[in-house]
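pinging the channel bc i need a second pair of eyes. not urgent but kinda urgent?? the chain im working w is below, pasted from the shared doc
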Amino acid sequence: MNHLKVYNDIILKAKSENRQKLSRNSKKYVYYENHHIIPRCLGGSDENENLILLTPKEHYVCHKLLTYIYKGNLKIAQAFFLMIFCKKKKIKLSLRDYVYAKELIVTIPHLEVSEETRKKISKMLKLSPEERAVEKKKEKKQKKFNKWFDKNYSPEKIQKYLNSLKHTHYSPDFDRTIHIPFSR
């Protein structure tokens, strides 16, 4: 079987239908899931051109096909595994698919994972997809915050920043700070 052709056919079919997420109250409501056409672990982006709406069945099949197309890729296997064994998603599996998913994870060589990472993964598996998205956003914000503080700023740069704060004035008429540039 040509797994890549089947994968591409599913994506093309979904694109040709010009699917949209509608509100649940709508008469034409169909539940769709976002799917990265080129997986993020392979360099795919979160841009609209790389996202497609798939039915849950199509989404499952696409992730399974990706495990055949990119055989041996740990991140692709993990995405498929998490899709199946996430506690909040109730997916009915055939015995064949259950065994395939378990064997897939066991047979791919793993990197050593720290206890902290294991706890983090365990915590994420217990969350619903919506809760997981919120957690990922929080993590991303925290990483940006940490990145800013991890930089080694020169004493001159720090002094320049502190001097700029001295020229910030508060106006009683407004509820916000007004920055007045000050030149010497």
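so The longest helix spans residues 129-150. and The chain has seven helices and four strands. — does that match what u expected or am i reading it wrong
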